[in-house]
Design a protein that fits this description.
heterodimer; A: about 120 residues; B: about 110 residues; five-stranded antiparallel sheet
């Protein structure tokens, strides 16, 4: 058990809808990262938060947004959903500010299916 | 060409065999991660390294910064090692973006 909790595990929704994915990091970890894993693109970094502030941005679409709350949990909001957004969304956490100096702890992912 | 290339893409071996998975990258890096993804989808971080060699149980990871290459070795492989192994690099110090390889699917036959 990594200590990182993601909810929900599965989500099925229709095109055009909006969903929120939630992540609770491991106790003591200040950084939260969001990744998308799709069949055709593999794993891609979306965004990172450190202690409530956005720290780094990757291939995150404008339709997607995220935030980290004072209790350090994070939410990833996906709106105007398209079929191509169907993927596994992973959250990871680490103690310090970046994956260049501390290991990552991954949640079990949220499987999003857009129909 | 991807920044991170892994080989082989698929590997099937008999239980007990010594396994090597390779990762080559095209940019200067500050660190490299090896990850394991089980059939259920969960991802586990195996190693983070920026130089030399690390060992954990039957797993060994090495990196050669000059040659831009890393290897993951599994000794005395076991069916429970069957998983996808993913290499990921941080290409610029201070930039926290992980760039992932496409993974190596390992199947160990009893």
């Amino acid at each position: 058990d990594s200590g990182v909790t993601q909810t929900p595990k599965h989500l099925i929704t229709a095109t055009g809808q909006r969903v929120t994915l939630r992540c609770s990091p491991r106790s003591g970890d200040l950084s939260v990262y969001w990744y998308q894993q799709s069949l055709d693109q593999g794993l891609q970094f979306l965004i990172q938060y450190y202690n409530g502030e956005e720290r780094a941005k990757g291939n995150i679409l404008e339709r997607f947004s995220a935030q980290q709350f004072p209790d350090l949990h994070s939410e990833l909001n996906l709106s105007s959903l398209e079929l191509g957004d169907s993927a596994l969304y992973f959250c990871a956490s680490s103690v310090v500010g970046g994956p260049y100096n501390s290991p990552l702890h991954f949640g079990n992912g949220t499987r999003l299916t857009v129909t | 060409k991807n920044e991170v290339e892994q080989s082989p893409q698929n590997l099937t071996a008999q239980e007990g065999e010594f396994i090597t998975i390779n990762c080559s990258y095209s940019v200067g890096i500050s660190a490299l991660h090896w990850l394991q993804q089980h059939p259920g989808g969960g991802i586990v971080s195996l190693f983070m390294l920026s130089s030399g060699k690390k060992k954990h149980g039957r797993l060994i990871a090495t990196i050669n910064i000059q040659e831009k290459h890393s290897s993951l070795h599994i000794t005395a492989s076991h069916p429970r090692d069957s998983a996808v192994y993913i290499c990921a690099v941080i290409s610029n110090f201070g930039n926290e973006k992980l760039t992932f390889g496409t993974g190596t699917r390992l199947t160990i036959i009893p």
